[in-house]
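ok, trying the design again with the full structure, not the truncated one.
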């Protein structure tokens, strides 16, 4: 009997390539999300540090211009923090969307894997039947030869 060849092997390989590509995209999005989260954390730390400095400066003599500049800087960093939060929310939505794509691609690959297993089982069953038929023909041929020689 001929060697087993999955009838949808090319499609299966294509789907596996798509799955790997989608997983890579998901990894990139997660990395970008982690970068944004770190930037937000750094921003929050800087805001807290500058706020503390401003409070300490207020205890000393500080010019109104210096106070206003420091306050503007803190306000700017707070606005930047809001922007980071918005970007993080958008990136999280992208990650979730990409995760769904990966899940769907995984399901497609799994479906093809199950189909391949089923076809392999059918191939093995047909091979077994072919061997049984060969053995039956061989045995019946032996019996026929014995009858002819007696």
């Amino acid at each position: 009997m001929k060697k087993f060849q999955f009838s949808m092997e090319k499609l299966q390989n294509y789907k596996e390539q798509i799955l790997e590509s989608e997983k890579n995209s998901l990894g990139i999005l997660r990395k970008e999300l982690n970068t944004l989260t770190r930037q937000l954390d750094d921003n929050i730390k800087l805001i807290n540090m500058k706020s503390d400095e401003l409070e300490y400066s207020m205890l000393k003599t500080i010019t109104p211009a210096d106070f206003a500049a420091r306050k503007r800087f803190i306000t700017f960093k707070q606005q930047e923090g809001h922007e980071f939060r918005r970007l993080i929310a958008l990136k999280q939505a992208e990650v979730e969307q990409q995760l769904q794509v990966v899940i769907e691609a995984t399901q497609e690959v799994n479906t093809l894997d199950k189909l391949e297993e089923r076809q392999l089982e059918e191939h093995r069953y047909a091979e077994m039947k072919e061997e049984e038929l060969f053995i039956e023909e061989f045995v019946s041929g032996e019996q026929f030869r014995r009858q002819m020689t007696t």
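Keeping the full-length input from now on. The two ends are 35 Å apart (CA to CA).
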